[in-house]
Amino acid sequence: METERGPGAGLRQRIFEVLEHGRRREPASRAADWLLVLLVLADVAATVAYTVPDIAASQGAALQLLDRICVSVFAVEYVGRIWTAPEHPLLRRRTPLSARLRFAATPLMVIDALALLPLVLELLFPRNELMLLTRLVRFLKLARYSPALATIGRLIASERRALLACVIIFIGALLAAAATMYAVEGSVQPDKLGDMPKAMWWAASMLAKIGGGDLAPPLTTLGRIIAAITVMLGIGCFALPVAIIGRGFYEEIRRRDFVVTFAMVARVPLFARLDAAAIVDLVAILRARTVPSGTTIIRKGERGDAMYLIASGRVQVESAAGSAVLEEGEFFGEMALLSREPRSATVTAVRPTDLLVLDANDFLRLVERLPDIGAKVRAVAKERRLAPVTNATGGTLGGNDGTRQ
Ligand code: CMP
């Protein structure tokens, strides 16, 4: 079902693009991002400063005003996002109300709502320390702007089996250390190790090495051996999840120079007719790469390992026959993947360019799974193979037709 397209629909679409990063490098989008990031940082700094009595006494009013301004902007931002939700390609088939409700339930929107919560609470209850905590939640709004943070949820979800195994190993080590210590020293130190809960607290402290002054030092030789083994087990228990998360984190950061959003992928003409589920899949497999002007992205004669979509910027294709320019929305690097021959041309960025990169295997799978896309890409590749590259600077060859709609 089409959603309402009243007189405000154009404006709504525009605001949606600005807020949801439909176009990378677009000045309005960037300005909005910077403004919101600065306000989040300013608000958090003001909240922290306000807890210092001297500062609160001298600058209290100014800090309060700053907080009010920040919160007002966040409120406008929230309302704007909710209002434009029906423009979200994933939600277009819903009624405006259901699209907005669904959008409001997404994790980032829940964070945005939590960021506004203190405003409501402050109106209902007098100031207290808990309020400070709720105000600091605003810091989480930055998740929207950090590719690494934005992917951490996905990371935990994808590594959940490995992480669950770590939890089980930890509990196993805890029980084993507690039970042996209870058996060996339970009667020697009944006040500290006399029952399993006490022994488990001891074991947990040893495993995490948080033992403070009240942690029972083992009194028997066997007890000391158990304590030493427990400490070593503890290192393993913590090193394992750190390694799992660390590796995944590193790979994600390397994969993504910027956050790939749904709106960004939906705007690529090649994917214009895809349904929402297919676009969600693409968001997960596309890598994001930003290259400065002058970077050679593809070298003639090399083996093809990926196809590139231009999210913003401009590249120049150069072969023996001449050169052509490809712009935002067009793609390149498909010929070597389809023909399994070496790259047919050298492609260089002539502006700072944001690329969405589809690895060869993902590309071949996509072409197989979505024959329409396969046909479009093949048609463009064929045309490019036949078309001699011209020297026209503004002209694009074999890129626009069939892909832009
Ligand atoms: P590939 O051969 O994998 O690597 C170089 C890329 O340049 C090629 O894929 C095409 O995507 C692109 N290319 C080659 N010839 C042309 C052309 N005539 N017009 C536009 N792009 C081209």
How much of the sequence lies in strands comes to 5-15%
Please count the beta strands (DSSP E, at least 2 residues each).
Answer: 8
Q: What is the overall pLDDT average?
A: 85
Helix content: 55-70%
Taken in chain order, the helices and strands follow as: HHHHHHHHHHHHHHEEEEEEHEEHH
Radius of gyration: 28 Å
Structural key phrases:
405 residues; alpha+beta; 4-stranded antiparallel beta sheet; 10% strand; disordered C terminus; binds adenosine-3',5'-cyclic-monophosphate
Outline the structure in words.
The chain has a four-stranded antiparallel sheet with strand order 1-8-3-6. A four-stranded antiparallel sheet has the order 2-7-4-5, with no helix packed on it. Helix content is 59%, strand content 10%. The radius of gyration is 28 Å and the shape is globular. The relative contact order is 0.08. With 405 residues, the chain is of the alpha+beta class. The protein contains 17 helices and eight strands. α16 crosses α17 (371-386). The two termini are 21 Å apart. The chain has helices spanning 9-19, 27-50, 53-84, 96-104, 107-124, 129-136, 147-150, 152-158, 160-185, 190-193, 196-208, 221-255, 262-266, 276-285, 334-339, 360-369, 371-386, and strands at residues 287-291, 296-298, 306-312, 314-319, 322-327, 331-332, 346-349, 353-359. Mean pLDDT is 85; it is low at 391-405. The structure holds adenosine-3',5'-cyclic-monophosphate. Adenosine-3',5'-cyclic-monophosphate is lined by residues 298, 304, 317, 319, 324, 332-336, 343-345, 347, 384, 387, 389, 397-399.
